[in-house]
Design goal:
Rossmann fold; alpha/beta; 7-stranded antiparallel beta sheet; 32% helix; 290 residues; 16 strands; globular; Elongation Factor Tu (Ef-tu), domain 3
């Protein structure tokens, strides 16, 4: 019987978004903001990267937040407290370089709020003033807003449909805040690629340097598969081993968007196969019960 890393706690944060506390003592001890882990659910599972949201070194646990978006994350969504994850490897990637920026703006879109939270905490503990913009498609998909409110000096929330906070995109709220004379010295964006691209344009217009976290492009997490290749300031970089954070004004977002779509068809086929397997199992179970 497969064992591994015990899931200590599980809860559903929002539609298709799950939170897990997993026993991983060594990772909990060594992890720093910005770093991630690679996990494999079972012997036949694929390896996926997930950013560590929080650690509890005393209990030896790490906090992961997972959005159901493909085959493996859909499988993960069925896991609960008491289940085991076969492999959890990390911490991987480079930790966020926190500087004396003075006034920092952090921008999170959707589940991107999860990896952004430890960065905000690290920047705040370093003595910076930290403001945050957290956005999602609707109120039901917002996560961690209360925790950001506790960490940050000021928080603004926005939703595409206007069900919570300002109606519109995080880039719109950022532009308004800058126009009001916020005086940001640095910005960090984590979220979907189109969102980070839009944020980059606003930061450039206001001449604010910043970072983009390229977690969405990672596949293997070790640099061997090459799927995480990105162009930054005209040079090829590997997001999983040289990042995941890069100068937001140097990222070729057009290329990144195309690369991020590379496995869309294969992922769709994998999810359909998973659904077919679940249906077959359900039918067989009914026949057995009958």
């Amino acid at each position: 019987m497969e064992q591994g890393y015990l899931i200590h706690l599980h809860r559903k944060l929002a539609d298709r978004i799950h939170e897990y506390w997993v026993d991983a003592p060594l990772i909990a001890k060594k992890h720093r903001a910005g770093q991630f882990v690679i996990l494999r659910l079972h012997e036949h599972g694929e390896r996926i990267p997930l950013t560590v949201v929080e650690t509890d070194p005393e209990q030896g646990r790490i906090r992961l937040i997972v959005q159901v978006a493909g085959k493996t994350t859909e499988e993960f969504g069925d896991y609960t407290a008491g289940d085991h994850i076969l492999d959890v490897v990390g911490p991987l990637g480079l930790q966020t370089h926190v500087d004396d920026w003075g006034k920092l703006i952090v921008i999170g879109g959707g589940v991107g709020a999860a990896p952004l939270l430890p960065i905000a905490k690290a920047a705040k503990s370093h003595g910076n003033t930290v403001n945050a913009i957290i956005g999602a498609r609707s109120k039901e998909l917002l996560i961690l807003t209360e925790e950001f409110a506790e960490v940050c000096d000021e928080l603004r929330i926005c939703t595409d449909d206007g069900t919570e906070g300002t109606k519109g995109f995080v880039s719109d709220v950022l532009d308004q805040w800058c126009d009001q004379g916020a005086g940001y010295k640095f910005g960090i964006a984590v979220g979907p690629v189109p969102m980070m691209n839009a944020v980059a344009k606003v930061l450039k217009r206001w001449e604010i340097p910043g970072l983009a976290s390229l977690n969405p492009i990672m596949v293997d997490g070790t640099g061997m598969c090459g799927a995480c290749r990105v162009t930054v300031h005209g040079e090829t970089r590997f997001a999983c081993v040289e990042g995941p954070e890069f100068d937001i004004h140097g990222v070729d977002f057009h290329e990144l968007t195309l690369r991020n779509r590379s496995y869309t068809e294969e992922e769709h086929e994998a999810v359909e196969h998973l659904h077919a397997c679940h249906l077959t199992q359900a039918i067989n179970h009914v026949r057995t019960e009958a």
